Please model this.
Amino acid sequence: MKNKIGLLVAALMMIVGLSGCDDDEKMAFNLSGEWHGYFGTSYSISNRHGKEQVFYSDETYLKFVPDYPFATHGYGIEVDYYYDGPYEYQYFHFDWEIRDERLELSYPHNHAMNAVIDDYKMNSYRFKGYCGGEYFSLHRVDDDYDWECYHDDYGYIRRSSW
Model:
């Protein structure tokens, strides 16, 4: 009888231990694809007088591509649009990984941008929460955004009026 109870306890612990992996795979499956909305990004520059100016993005497109079907890691592209400031947009390539229901973003061009998202709500159509203390709210989009021109790790388009 003790052996049966011990086996039952071991089996339950194994099931509970594996459920985190299942949650990570579910999150990765939901995350894969294209998202659009407010991601809370910004950049700063020094003006002619040496004063720092901060410009906040008005909208962001994100694309998450898993390394293979149901992978909990992969790569992606972020494009941040600015309606004000010297840049019309900036784009960044990143790597992502989900571990214990935490999404980690790693930017090879600028490691200072690396972030962890662990305070979020997500379903197949909405993804919102906090990244680096900034609130974000994204919705899934169809595969109609043109990603062709974003081939480097980092890039931007400067406004001609600045």
Residues 4-20 have pLDDT under 50 and may be disordered. Residues 29 and 49 are 48 Å apart (CA to CA).
